[in-house]
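Hey, resending since the last one bounced:
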Amino acid sequence: THPDAAAGAAATQEDVLILPQPLCVAASADGRQPRYEQVRQLRLAVTADQAAHLREEGVGQVVRVTGTLAHAPIGPDAPPLRLSVLGVDSD
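The structure tokens again:
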């Protein structure tokens, strides 16, 4: 494989995911991550390959995304939670 291809797969981009229904996120067991009430938006971190897969699915398609949710504030207007995507699966 070409080195740039591997770099493209590892590079991430973030988009804001607007949830159809608000959800609550529990605090971490060690107390280091706070609880969140009525979460309506998440930052969705995807690799270039994952983003391409999502685009291929098209608008209106049902997809399942698995990942790691973390508290990651970056500014006053950005959602404080980031879902770093590990996998994308379509129905």
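The first helix runs from residue 3 to 10.

Sorry for the duplicate.
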